[in-house]
Amino acid sequence: MEKIGQCAKCKLKNKICNHPDGKEPKFCSTRLYPQAINEAKEELKKPDIHEFARIASIQEAECYTHRDAKSHYHYPVKPRLQEIIEFSKKMNYRKLGIAFCSGLDKEAEILTKILEKNNFQIISVVCKVGGIQKEYIGIKDEQKIRIGEYETMCNPIAQAKILNHAQTDFNILLGLCVGHDSLFMKYSKAMVTVFAVKDRLLGHNPLAVLYTSHSYYDRFLVKPNNQ
C-alpha cells in the first residue's frame, strides 16, 4: 500500500519539519516527498517567487511581538487586514483587485474604503458581473436558489479576467462560494490572498464547526449511513 503524507495526524512535539534533529512518523510528508520539496526549492530560486516568499515570511514574523524573548509565548498583534496592507506595501503594490460576493457588498465597500485610505488603487468586481443567466451553464429551474425566478450565475472567471485586464498587482478574495473561489484562483494572473471565506450559516467563520465538533457539530464525526 502506497504511503501518503498525513501531517494532520502527527502528534510528535519534536518534528523533523521544525528541527533538523527532530523525528518523523511513517507518514511524514518531509520524508515521503523529497522530490516535491526539491522542486519547490528550485521554484524559490526564481527572482519574483523568491521575493514574494521572502516578504511573506517577514510579514509573518512581524505579526508577533516579544520575538526576542526566550519564552515560547509570542503575542499576535495584527489582524489579517493589517497584514494585507503591510504586505502589499512591502511588495510595492499599488493596484489591488477585490473579487467579492454580492452577499458581502457592504463588507466590500468598507474594505475598499480602508484600502483607498492607505493609498491603494482598488478595482472591485462583484460575482454576478456580466449578468449571465444560470441556464447558460445548464442549471435547471429546480436547481436555482429561487425556483421559478430569473437568476444570474456567479462568474468568477470573468472576475479574474477583468482584474487581469486591469493589470492588478495583487488580488483579494472576499466571500466567494466554494468552487467559485477555486475558479477565480485558477484564472487570476496576479497572486491571490483570501481576506474572508463564505460560510452562510456561521457568519463567515467556518472554523466554528471544528471548535464545536465535540458538541454542537459532532454529527460530522459520525460516518454517513450511505458510505
Key phrases:
227 residues; two-stranded antiparallel ribbon; globular
**Could you tell me the strand content as a percent range?**
5-15%
Radius of gyration: 21 Å
Structural class: alpha/beta
Number of DSSP E strands: 6
Could you give the topology of this structure?
Layout (H helix, E strand, L loop, with lengths): L28 H4 L1 H10 L3 H15 L2 E2 L9 E2 L3 H11 L4 E6 L4 H13 L3 E6 L29 H10 L4 E5 L5 H8 L3 E6 L10 H5 L16
Parallel strand pairs: 3-4, 3-5, 5-6
Antiparallel strand pairs: 1-2
Please tell me about this protein's structure.
The protein has 227 residues and is of the alpha/beta class. The chain has a domain of 51 residues. The protein is 33% helix and 12% strand. It has a 4-stranded parallel beta sheet with strand order 4-3-5-6, sandwiched between helices. It has a two-stranded antiparallel ribbon with strand order 1-2. β5, α7 and β6 form a beta-alpha-beta unit. The longest helix has 15 residues. The radius of gyration is 21 Å and the shape is globular. The two termini are 22 Å apart. The model has no long low-confidence stretch (mean pLDDT 94).
Give the gist of this structure.
The protein is an alpha/beta fold. It has a domain of 51 residues. It is built from eight helices and six strands.
